[in-house]
């Protein structure tokens, strides 16, 4: 009897061993196929570059105003999400000289990222070269980042027979820290770029950030935990809800904190501080950073925050959020106009207490470009008009901003 039991036990152990071995082989096979696919993609560089050239040279669609040419999906991520496989896409935008920020961003957030790149005249080939370099020379960017392009109709690419976008993975593109909206004589269309990147994202929810921001490593985990809790409580997920991710600024030369405890430690040492604390404190203070610091650190905890002008938080929300108004260009009111519409449309804001965003470098008022105040005055007039339009659009709403 004992021998029989021992024999059965050994059979069970052997069976489990074979199962483990099989699962490991199966897992390695999947990884091998994935790496093989990515290597195959890498071998198609010339083909991809020719396809991009064709997209740039051929006529393509314009934006609503007819002022900009729009080229979606210039290069797509090798791992393209579906509404079920991934729930969150980071939406961002920049000029070609800021694409290097994607390297660190994808290291911290290994999930879908949709980026719209603004270019113009002689910069087009440089933009394509930079996009191709980061796609083919960085495994995380290749897996997760989808690129789109926008350029003004009155400054199209040079219609030259020569097309040189060759690159070497050992030589990164030249980058500068100049502001996106410091391009001489060309208006930078933040909101058009955001709308483009948002439209071609493939997940149910989005987080719109600046490209030089880094999310805390646990961002996806916290978001997924919140989603799961809604389901377990058998409550309907409110489509008009926005989960605010508190934003901070980090002194140059320091590493981005890996968790809340590290961030608070750096905060106490004045190495990190709330975003825009010097540049525009009213734009962020309604996040209530003191309450955030005093809150318990739990994956699902959050507190309600009321909208007050001129609050412009960074948030996670359903992809169905109101579009950004594309009339706002250059500096000022481009983000708050969309937050304002969300508020009037009935969105509720709650602040997540265990996640954060970090902007690399302190924002100082004296560092803004010289035309900032003129642009601010121009957009302030447009914002007043925009708010009156919202009253007509949401006649039943009693909210104002």
From TrEMBL:
GO molecular function: glucuronosyltransferase activity; metal ion binding
InterPro entries: B4GAT1, Nucleotide-diphossugar_trans
GO cellular component: Golgi membrane
Compartments it resides in: Golgi apparatus membrane
A Pfam family this chain is assigned to: Glyco_transf_49
Pathway in which this enzyme or protein is active: Protein modification; protein glycosylation
Reactions performed catalytically: 3-O-[beta-D-Xyl-(1->4)-Rib-ol-P-Rib-ol-P-3-beta-D-GalNAc-(1->3)-beta-D-GlcNAc-(1->4)-(O-6-P-alpha-D-Man)]-Thr-[protein] + UDP-alpha-D-glucuronate = 3-O-[beta-D-GlcA-(1->3)-beta-D-Xyl-(1->4)-Rib-ol-P-Rib-ol-P-3-beta-D-GalNAc-(1->3)-beta-D-GlcNAc-(1->4)-(O-6-P-alpha-D-Man)]-Thr-[protein] + UDP + H(+)
Membrane protein topology class: Single-pass type II membrane protein
Cofactor names: Mn(2+)
Highest taxon listed in the record's lineage: Eukaryota
Any one of the GO BP annotations: protein O-linked glycosylation via mannose
Keyword set, alphabetical order: Glycoprotein, Glycosyltransferase, Golgi apparatus, Manganese, Membrane, Metal-binding, Signal-anchor, Transferase, Transmembrane, Transmembrane helix
UniProt family annotation: Belongs to the glycosyltransferase 49 family.
Name of this protein: Beta-1,4-glucuronyltransferase 1
Source organism of this protein record: Patella caerulea (Rayed Mediterranean limpet)
């Amino acid at each position: 009897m004992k021998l029989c039991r021992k024999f059965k036990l050994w059979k069970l152990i052997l069976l489990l061993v074979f199962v483990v071995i099989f699962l490991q082989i199966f897992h390695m096979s999947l990884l091998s196929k994935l790496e093989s696919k990515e290597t195959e993609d890498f071998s198609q560089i010339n083909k991809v570059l020719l396809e991009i050239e064709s997209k740039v040279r051929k006529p393509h669609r314009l934006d609503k105003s007819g002022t900009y040419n729009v080229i979606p999906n210039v290069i797509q991520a090798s791992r393209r999400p579906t509404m079920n496989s991934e729930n969150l896409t980071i939406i961002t935008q920049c000029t070609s000289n800021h694409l290097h920020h994607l390297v660190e961003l994808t290291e911290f957030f290994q999930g879908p990222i949709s980026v719209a790149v603004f270019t113009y005249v002689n910069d087009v080939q440089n933009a394509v070269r930079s996009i191709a370099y980061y796609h083919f020379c960085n495994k995380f960017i290749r897996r997760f980042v989808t690129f789109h392009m926008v350029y003004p109709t009155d400054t199209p690419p040079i219609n030259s027979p020569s097309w040189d976008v060759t690159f070497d993975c050992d030589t990164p593109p030249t980058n500068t820290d100049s502001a996106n909206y410091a391009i001489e004589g060309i208006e930078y269309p933040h909101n058009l770029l955001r709308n483009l990147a948002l439209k071609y994202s493939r997940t149910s929810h989005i987080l719109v950030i600046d490209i030089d921001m880094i999310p805390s490593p646990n961002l996806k985990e916290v978001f997924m935990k919140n989603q799961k809790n809604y389901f377990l409580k058998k409550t309907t997920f409110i489509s008009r809800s926005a989960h605010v991710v508190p934003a901070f600024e980090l002194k140059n030369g320091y590493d981005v904190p890996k968790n809340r405890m590290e961030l608070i430690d750096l905060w106490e040492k004045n190495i990190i501080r709330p975003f825009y604390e010097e540049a525009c404190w009213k734009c962020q203070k309604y996040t209530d950073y003191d309450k955030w610091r005093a809150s318990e650190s739990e994956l699902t905890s959050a507190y309600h925050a009321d909208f007050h002008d001129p609050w412009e938080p960074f948030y996670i929300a359903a992809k169905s959020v109101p579009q950004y108004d594309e009339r706002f260009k250059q500096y000022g009111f481009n983000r708050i106009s969309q937050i304002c519409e969300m508020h009037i449309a009935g969105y509720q804001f709650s602040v997540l207490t265990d996640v954060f965003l970090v902007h690399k470098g302190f924002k100082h008022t004296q560092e803004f470009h010289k035309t900032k105040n003129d642009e601010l005055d121009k957009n302030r007039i447009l914002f007043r008009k925009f708010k009156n339009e919202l009253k007509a659009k949401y006649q039943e709403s009693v909210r104002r901003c």
